[in-house]
C-alpha cells in the first residue's frame, strides 16, 4: 500500500473563485482515477504550522498505480495548465505501508451469472435480441455472452432435463490477491467449505475460489478476470451487469454471510423485506436479498447506455409480445428506471435500467444504511398504493 500526500498553498493573488475551482477539480480526482483509495482533501486547521493552507491524502494499492496516476496525460495536463499557475508552494510525500487503512475490503463488483437452461439456442436468441448481449463462444454444452469488455456477463449451461432456467452461480471480481486472501480467511473462519472455481472459470481469471452461500448458491470470487480490448460492436446493449436479486428463506443468515464473511456493505434496508448490499465498485447495490418463502434468483439487473435504450428494448419486447413482468419501475433507492422481462425458460427476470446510483468515494465510506418501511413507495415511486406490495 502506498500513501501519497500533498500539502500546498495558493499564490496570494489567486482569486477565491479560481482556488475553489481547482479544489473542486481535485475533489473529483477519485472519479477520474479509479486506482485511488481513501481520498481526502481539506483546509489546514493547524495552529502550529500555517505554512500550507490545504492538503490532500490518497492511497494506492501499489507504486505502479501511483506512477500510472502521476504520469498520466490527464494528470500532467492538470498540473501544467491548472495547478502550477496558481500554486505558491507545495510539499509531496509518498511512502509505503504494510497495511491497508480503513475497513476490510469486499469484492469489487459482479461479473457474471451462470444459468442452466433447457433450450440453450432459444435462450441465446432471447438474450441477444431482448437484452442486447453479444455471443462470444458457443458449444453444445455452454455459451458465453457479454455486455461490455469483461469476458462474459452470462454463462449459459445446457440442461435439457430442466423445465425452466435456473441460476446456479454468481461471480464477483476482487481487486487484488491480498483482498482475495482476506476473504478466503473469512470463509474458513466462519466454517464454510472452500470450493474450487469451476474449471472453465479457472482459465479465465487469476487466483480464485468459490463458496456456497446459506441458500446453496455458488459464489465465485477471483482476480484478473479476462477482458476484451474493445466493447461489443452491438450498439443497443447493456454496459454492465449490476446485481442479482436473491429471494431467500434464510434471510438473516444470508445478510450476515454477505456482510460479515464477504464484506459487502449495506446500502439500505426495507425492514422485514429486502436488504441492498454494495461492493467496491460503489453501485448502490451489487446484491439484493429478499426475505421470501422460497429461494431463487429473482432477477439479474443490466444497466443500459441510456433511458432511450431502455425504451428501445421495451419496444422490442412489445413488438415480439415477450412477457414484461414489471413495466417502467422508478426505483427510489437506486434512482434507476427499469422494466423487467421474464420467460421462465431463460432463467430469472432480466431487468434493464437506464442508470444506477453510484456512491461518491466519500459516500462509499461514510453512508449509513437507511431503514425504510415495507411500502411499495420505497421500491417504486410511481406505484404509491400501499396495498400494491404483492407486485414485487
> For this entry, what is the oligomeric state of its chains?
single chain
Number of strands: 20
Helix content: 10-25%
Quickly count the helices. 10
Helix and strand sequence: EHHEEHHEEHEEEEHHEEEHEEEEHEEEHE
Structure overview:
The protein is an alpha+beta fold. It has helices at residues 16-27, 29-32, 63-70, 73-83, 120-131, 177-189, 199-202, 251-261, 307-320, 361-366, and strands spanning 2-10, 37-43, 54-60, 87-96, 109-117, 134-138, 142-146, 154-158, 166-173, 208-212, 218-222, 238-248, 265-270, 274-278, 287-291, 296-304, 324-330, 337-341, 349-353, 370-372. It has a 9-stranded mixed sheet. 33% of the residues are buried.
Keywords:
392 residues, alpha+beta, nine-stranded mixed beta sheet, seven-stranded mixed beta sheet, 10 helices, 20 strands, 33% strand, globular
Helices and strands, with pairings:
Elements: E1 2-10, H1 16-27, H2 29-32, E2 37-43, E3 54-60, H3 63-70, H4 73-83, E4 87-96, E5 109-117, H5 120-131, E6 134-138, E7 142-146, E8 154-158, E9 166-173, H6 177-189, H7 199-202, E10 208-212, E11 218-222, E12 238-248, H8 251-261, E13 265-270, E14 274-278, E15 287-291, E16 296-304, H9 307-320, E17 324-330, E18 337-341, E19 349-353, H10 361-366, E20 370-372
Parallel strand pairs: 5-8, 9-11, 12-15, 13-20, 16-19
Antiparallel strand pairs: 1-3, 1-4, 2-3, 5-9, 6-7, 7-8, 10-11, 12-16, 13-14, 14-15, 17-18, 18-19
